[in-house]
């Protein structure tokens, strides 16, 4: 089966040009002017923009947390992603005591319902000689990334010595370390003190996780990476000072890369003081307008490399069902922490919102160019995480993961457009100019306007190779 997309404007990470695209089966086979094919379905994309499918390098689907679970699974989260133009998502495997293989197998079972392509990062939340020896086996499973945490004491954090050892192992095996940077010790102390003083409201989530901890931990990770001669990728950068540290380290040749997320660009800690403030609870928290501005600057000048979502949705009120694909569903959510901010599940929705929101409020506002948009949303994650040029590229031989983007489409965004399985949208009522019109996953049309043509099981696990250091 062939599809010929004619007369569109292609946007890649480096160029913008008029061209046709010929897809045969799952692959792009030709890019050029005036292409013809005897039997292809022809799509006239005059006036439309054509981009490689988005790659979200940071999502949490079906993730158990605090007596509940993130409310999108690998089907609903992927479906939502596709409606927002994203065709590949990477989520994090919870490391069980039984080891890597067991943990990956469990995550594979969850992901059997995938609707877009996917791969995994491994949470390195335990460390021992045995685990150290087993790390290289992840490469054979197609997983070239480990995530460490400098926060969540007693739960997810491993100590700096173990992080340093793991960085050396990563280096020896061509793997990439990802790091959640906050100061776990400071957070634990401040949380205990806040609770002892009777502070239980959501705003205390931000007050007990100061941005200096994120700044200091970012520099600490960069310093450890340099000393291990290993690359590191800092996830969900949220504080302006983190961007300063990233720049400081990169200017000195340290192989450190940074990801931010839409929530850190558009919101501040003030959101937590709203009556529905728990909707904005995520870790790390949102900061100040100065931090928003510094993150934008870091995207504008290329200090940062990617925009992921950290999509980890929960219901605002999980006692009230919503209707998803015709069925009522309710999943316990933010209400679990009604009387104690430490019990509010951490995380928020965004997998569908990322590209449309960033197009209108990032590109249209002049913070980033259309080519940077493609770089941050697709090409850079593909390169860093060992998928390029199969993904993240509009070139012959690449997977035909393609978004036809209608720059004229006006949408009032919010829960009515959203396929994210939760009861709220952070961008409720935001006016959008430009939205995905058609989305192809390996040559198959999975989104056509507001029609869902994809299905559970369409998504393939992507074994990744050694990535690039950008
Ligand atoms: O609040 C968040 N981000 N939850 C997901 C876990 C993490 O640290 O990324
Ligand atoms: Zn994290
Ligand atoms: Zn995360």
Mind explaining what this structure looks like?
There is one protein chain. With 470 residues, this protein is an alpha/beta fold. It folds into 2 domains: 2-51 and 391-408 and 432-452, Urease, subunit C, domain 1 (Roll); 53-384, TIM Barrel, CATH 3.20.20. The protein contains 13 helices and 21 strands. The strands form 4 sheets. Strands 1, 2, 3, 4, 5, 18, 19, 20 and 21 form a 9-stranded mixed beta sheet that branches. Helix 5 (160-172) packs across helix 8 (211-228) and helix 8 packs parallel to helix 9 (240-251). The radius of gyration is 21 Å and the shape is globular. The model has no long low-confidence stretch (mean pLDDT 98). Bound molecules: N-(aminocarbonyl)-beta-alanine and zinc ion (ZN) (2 copies). N-(aminocarbonyl)-beta-alanine binds next to loops.
Chain-wise SSE layout:
Blueprint: E1 2-11, E2 16-24, E3 27-32, E4 41-44, E5 49-52, E6 54-59, E7 64-65, E8 68-69, H1 76-83, E9 86-93, H2 100-110, E10 117-123, H3 129-134, H4 137-140, E11 145-149, H5 160-172, E12 176-180, H6 184-196, H7 203-207, H8 211-228, E13 232-237, H9 240-251, E14 256-260, H10 262-266, H11 289-300, E15 306-307, E16 322-324, E17 327-329, H12 354-363, H13 370-384, E18 402-412, E19 431-441, E20 444-448, E21 451-452
Parallel strand pairs: 1-4, 1-5, 6-9, 9-10, 10-11, 11-12, 12-13, 13-14, 14-15
Antiparallel strand pairs: 1-2, 2-3, 5-18, 7-8, 16-17, 18-19, 19-20, 20-21
Helix pairs in contact: 5-8, 8-9, 9-11
This protein binds N-(aminocarbonyl)-beta-alanine (URP) and zinc ion (ZN) (2 copies).
